[in-house]
Recover the amino acids of this structure.
């Protein structure tokens, strides 16, 4: 299958998207399957991984409801409260749904960079391992060293690093070196963990006036570091619309990977997400 490994649907009227700017016309509007399915069909994309965008179990249930209704949604990455061990019951209940894949705490929005290392949240990583669920790591370059610690502390945790951990391409465009330390950290994650990395979200870390040349070295490093067997492509739609429409990011990603073999491109654009998230294996939960 050709898979978009990272996209969102949301309804702002639900009231739990606290990060969403009220005055942003691109983000602060409803997005649903009817908006995306025609684009998926256009490019022969068989399905998507729908990822949480609100820190609430209620949004996870909302997404699972969409997944029940639309076959194009192959799986859902949801949310639980890592700071409340009573949420083990929620996680266990959600894990029984055939399309529930794992969770993503919104670490990028937590002021304390060491939050993920606190003792009171460690139960959640252990629970993910016990329930055979995945962990989407959402953060910035400043979080890389701690994600490395978590990955090494829990080697059986199935972890994927979202959005290539958001290198600050806009700073690179402005003449600052945003590449070197990020690239060093990405190399460490690839060499010292079993994690995967998403080729997604790069476009929104650039600023207006970006070009493919601004994106290319970052994408190339991710692919070279993790190898085509551990990279999965995602659109990050509709967030990507802050800079480009789905079509442009998809075509740019095709261009960025044009030097790879056909099987390597198949891995990045579907096989790896299918393997990592175990898509199409719903019977294991029945």
């Amino acid at each position: 299958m050709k898979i978009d490994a990272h996209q969102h649907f949301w309804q702002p009227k639900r009231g739990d998207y606290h990060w969403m700017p009220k005055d942003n016309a691109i983000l602060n509007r409803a997005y649903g399957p009817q908006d995306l399915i025609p684009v998926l069909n256009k490019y022969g994309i068989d399905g998507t991984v729908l990822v949480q965008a609100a820190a609430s179990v209620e949004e996870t249930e909302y997404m699972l409801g969409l997944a029940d209704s639309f076959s194009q949604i192959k799986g859902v990455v949801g949310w639980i409260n890592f700071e409340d061990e009573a949420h083990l019951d929620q996680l266990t209940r959600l894990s029984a749904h055939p399309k529930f894949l794992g969770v993503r705490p919104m670490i990028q929005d937590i002021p304390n960079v060491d939050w993920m290392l606190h003792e009171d949240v460690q139960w959640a990583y252990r629970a993910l391992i016990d329930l055979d669920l995945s962990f989407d790591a959402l953060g910035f370059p400043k979080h890389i060293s701690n994600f490395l610690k978590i990955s090494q502390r829990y080697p059986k945790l199935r972890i994927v690093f979202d959005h290539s951990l958001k290198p600050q391409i806009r700073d690179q465009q402005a003449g600052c070196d945003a590449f070197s330390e990020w690239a060093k950290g990405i190399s460490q994650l690839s060499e010292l963990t079993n994690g995967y990395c998403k080729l997604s979200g790069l476009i929104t870390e650039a600023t207006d006036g970006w070009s493919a040349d601004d994106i290319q070295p970052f994408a190339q490093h991710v692919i070279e570091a993790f190898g085509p067997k551990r990279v999965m492509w995602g659109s990050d739609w509709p967030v990507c619309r802050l800079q480009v429409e789905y079509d442009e990011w998809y075509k740019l990603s095709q261009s960025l990977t044009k030097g790879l073999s056909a099987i390597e491109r198949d891995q990045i654009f579907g096989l790896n997400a299918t393997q990592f998230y175990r898509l199409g294996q719903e019977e294991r939960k029945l």
